[in-house]
Amino acid sequence: MIMYFTKGFLLLHTLLVLLLPQFDALQDTLTSSKPIRDGDLLVSNGETFALGFFTPGESTNRYVGIWFYKAPEQPVAWVANRDNPITDTSGVLSIDLHGNLVLYGEDQKKSIWSTNIVTNSNDSIILAQLTDVGNLVLFLNETSEVLWQSFDYPTDTFLPGMKLGLDRTTGLNRILTSWKSKDDPGIGNFSFILNTNSSSPELFLYKGNILWWRSGHWNGIGWSGIPTLSSNDSVMYFNLFNSEYETSTVWGLRYPGASLFSRLVLNGSGSIHRFVSAISDQEWDILGTVPLDRCDNYGKCGAFGKCQIQNGTEFECTCLTGFEPRSPSEWSARNATSGCVKKHGGGIRLQE
Ligand SMILES: *[C@@H]1O[C@H](CO)[C@@H](O)[C@H](O)[C@H]1NC(C)=O
Ligand SMILES: *[C@@H]1O[C@H](CO)[C@@H](O)[C@H](O)[C@H]1NC(C)=O
Ligand SMILES: *[C@@H]1O[C@H](CO)[C@@H](O)[C@H](O)[C@H]1NC(C)=O
Ligand SMILES: *[C@@H]1O[C@H](CO)[C@@H](O)[C@H](O)[C@H]1NC(C)=O
Ligand SMILES: *[C@@H]1O[C@H](CO)[C@@H](O)[C@H](O)[C@H]1NC(C)=O
Ligand SMILES: *[C@@H]1O[C@H](CO)[C@@H](O)[C@H](O)[C@H]1NC(C)=O
Ligand SMILES: *[C@@H]1O[C@H](CO)[C@@H](O)[C@H](O)[C@H]1NC(C)=O
Ligand SMILES: *[C@@H]1O[C@H](CO)[C@@H](O)[C@H](O)[C@H]1NC(C)=O
Question: Is residue 5 domain-resident?
Answer without folding.
Answer: no
